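agent: user wants the structure for Ribosomal-protein-alanine N-acetyltransferase from Leifsonia shinshuensis. delegating to structure tool.
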Amino acid sequence: MALDFADRELPGGLLLRLRREEDAAALAAAYTRNRGHLAPWDPTRSEDFFTEAGQRTRTLELLALRSLETAVPLVIVDGDEIAGGIDLSNIVRGAFQSAMVGYWLDRGHTGRGLASVALTALLDAARDDYALHRVQAATLLANHASQSVLTRAGFERIGVAPNYLKIAGRWQDHVLFQKILHD
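agent: tool returned. relaying tokens verbatim.
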């Protein structure tokens, strides 16, 4: 059984919901619109990533991971547009009961607390619906905005991982954060 997620209303009439195959065109438009905005924080993307076909393929991959209960891919919707995304990934069960979280926002929706609200909603589901114990996140050293989002959501800094991810074409150090969901 796939991990369910109940739609959540966000401030400003936005909606947090599961990603769907039908979102491919809106996702392609959002990523194209935000290409420069996201480039310093993202892996180098192929041209196909910015197309409807590329987003349909990526969405189907994420939905397949959801059916395996290893991911929960969500989008933030503003009318007919995608305003961002937030995902739980690498869900591990057994003694670990842990996952990673990642998120992005359209440049027109930053600075209003939307990422914090969406993250808090996903953390509630991670604790209450998915019975996870711990969620981890990583940010580039210079991504102070994302670090603030994590801190507001109750994450604690646990260290720095050298050469952690290949972002913007090079291996870069990341600050690691975690939030323990159960005592």
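agent: one observation worth passing along. The beta strands are 8-10, 14-18, 72-78, 81-92, 98-105, 134-140, 156-167, 170-180.
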